[in-house]
Amino acid sequence: MDTESWQLLEEAVRKTMTTASGRQLDEALAELGWLDMLTQMPDSAVPLVFRLLGETGSHAPVINDVVLHAAGRDAGGTVPLPFAGGSWVVWERTDGATTTLGGELPIRRVPNGEPLPLAAGRRALGWWLVGSSRAMLTRARQHALDRVQFGRPVASFQAIRHRLAETLVAIEGAEAALQAACDELGCLLAKAAAGQAALTAARHCQQVLGGIGFTAEHELHRHVKRSLVLDGMLGNTRELTREAGSILRAKGFAPRLAQL
Hints:
InterPro entries: AcylCo_DH-like_C, AcylCo_DH/oxidase_C. With 260 residues, the chain is mainly alpha-helical.
């Protein structure tokens, strides 16, 4: 696909996500050829779709498709997914939000699941977390430019700049890890980095936004809640970091994860 065609596709996906969410978005993505893209060019389609899910704040149960495709099964259904703390959940393809994880998503707990290849799913969720992190940073940055205290924008204060800069560094580092991820360990570490970046973004952007960031009218709290849920899917940052340590200890060495 040439550059112009790709830009048109990205614009179409973004526009769709700003007007639909949940089951409606799931169906709209299918009409745009999401499942075909997942089969034919997953390395391009997955970052595009999941990053835009984070940036727009919309949601769709497409993580099921990524995990099912990686397992060699037909996409379009649902599958139990491991969640933080040794639990299992199913992300339903409906609009019936549950109270299981915050009450905004159609996710319900199930007793157990079966072992599945998780590398592709972790990489996909990592892109979603990066998109959410960028959305939080964008809103905090704009607030810092607009908000005036002591006769000047708060963006001119060094403490504000440091928080925004640290957030950007965390996001860029996570994105670089996702771009380099090509095996199970790489995807595991990339998901952990993306989860940590999202937690860093939530903490710093909340401080930059101040009291308005706590209000229900502001979008920050939705991105924070979404990031906490996504961080827990397929293992949270702390669990994945411990798992990576166990893998490296068993190997006795740290393999090269990227060609620099």
